[in-house]
Amino acid sequence: MKLTILLILLNCFIFLYMLTLENPSEFVQNYGFSVKNFLSGKHYVIVTSMFLHASFSHLLSNMIALFFLGTSIEKKLGKKIMLPTYVFSGIAGNLSMFLPMFASPDTIGIGASAAISGLVGLGTFATSGKLVLFPSFVPFPFIVAGAIYLLVTLSNLFEVSHIAYHAHLFGLVAGSMIGLALTKHRVKKLLAFFLIILIISMLPMI
Questions:
Q1: Which tens digits make up the pLDDT trace of 148-171?
Q2: Is the peptide bond before 204 cis (omega within 30 degrees of 0)?
Q3: Cys-Cys crosslink for 182: which of 27, 49, 62, 126, Cβ 3.0 to 4.6 Å?
């Protein structure tokens, strides 16, 4: 839980710091991720961007998700697995912006959601049966939460939105890869996961 709280505090501190700046948009332009920023030599933005947030509501929604997902993952798998997954997934989400179908070279991406999505993927396969308060305040087994999250992400992937669903997807896949690498029952869990997706997809038709 210590790592989860530390990440939340770090995100909150940076957001509060941005509020003290005369021109926070310039700060976002310098430390947010864009293909143009990265290729111009600002390689650090691939990490710094995941600690920036555009508004209080953006920060709050991400930190609530991080709290419930992070405390669950950290307690079960430990910080030595959680932290690399978090960072790797955030980086993967940023790399999705290299695909022209998702973003122009000038588009700035910020937020912790891709990194948090990685925790969803990790928990889906590494702690499949553990209950988690995500994506609602109703507890679901991680594998069900992951299936719901994937369906929501895919259904909005090409919608015009301020939410970077493509980053969520890439982060989710990155975390899932690590989760699958940690489990001994990869095939069974993948089959169960896709079966749950099929069942959920059919629910509106019942």
A1: 999 999 999 988 788 999 999 999
A2: no
A3: 126
